[in-house]
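Work Package 3 (structural annotation) set out to generate three-dimensional models for the target panel prioritized at the project kickoff. During this period the team completed the workflow that converts sequence records into discrete structure tokens, so that structures can be stored uniformly alongside our sequence database. As a representative example, we reproduce one entry of 385 residues exactly as it appears in the project archive.
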Amino acid sequence: MNMADAFIVPDKIISGKGALRASAEVFRGMGKKALIVTDPTMEKLGNLERVTSLLKQEAIEYAVFSGITGEPDDGMIQEGVSCFREECCDFMIGLGGGSPIDSMKGIAMVAAYGGSPADQMGKTVDRRLAPMAAVPTTAGTGSEATQFTIITDRATQVKMLLKGPGLMPDLAIIDPQFTMTAPPKITAATGIDALTHAIEAYTSRKAQPLSDTFALSACRRIFGSLKKAWSDGSDEESRIQMALAALEAGIAFNNSSVTVVHGMSRPIGALFHVPHGISNAMLLDVCLGYAAKGAADRFGEIAVACGFAEKSEPAEAAADKLLEQVSALLKDIEIPTLEEYGIEKQAFLEVIPKMAADAFASGSPSNTRREISAEVMEELYRKLW
């Protein structure tokens, strides 16, 4: 590396048991009235009430927008912006999985810039937006620590990746009480999303020393705790470890970028409506197997850090051990294949050229250390059957 690396994280991170309670004072300094961006499930589970009762105790005014039904699209964002303006809010709290947190960022962006989310495609969101607090309820996307948001354009059905330092939340609240309510399937999908972030961040061409530290730590925690959190959701210690891992993995890939798995995952999600964590998981074996052949040293270092291999082993052997552990974990937590998920083989094979072209155009695959082309990705997609 002969260039300087920038390293960006949220202004404040409050983590551990009681993190929400400890955030009261920060909320008071963020503004007069909060817009809570969330989804109907958070209301049902009682997670919304945990936040509103704290705001009531602190005499902080709030309004609730719970119109995030699934992965965010520009229609939901515009509704949120109207609510933000009509209710005269001046800061935001995103409560939920990646979708409500991504939506909060989109609403703050459009409230500041006007227009529609698509207007910021390919630009850098660098304006100061309304202050944002992110309260993740899944241990997965890491959206609470990234300068990215993914919003679907309803008209074109394109998943737009919007980016810029303005989209980084001011406050990330990592409170395990919220992840306790995630069911096993969500725990599995989001946990593998976090593992993918961590492995890709460490093996990306843009990896840097600080992102490496967070990526390796996240890998260790996930291999140590995901299976436990999946099999027993009430195990508080494994939930704490997974919540921290998702945050670390988010910090890592925010600063070093993702690679081929995420590049190939988004088109599967867009065309077959597979949740993001699951489409990542379906690709892991095939994509990491390909990438590891051009970066055995990096893959091997993860294996050593996680205790799967000795430092003295050849890099290739260590890398293979990591890939074996990844495969075993996917089986243990019952990640479905494309077929088991109910995707039609013929329908999938027909769109492979389009998916490979879209994946290549996203730019993520070119961060992979091993050379990769759209043709190679077509081959990798075919291997999923």
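The first helix runs from residue 19 to 22.
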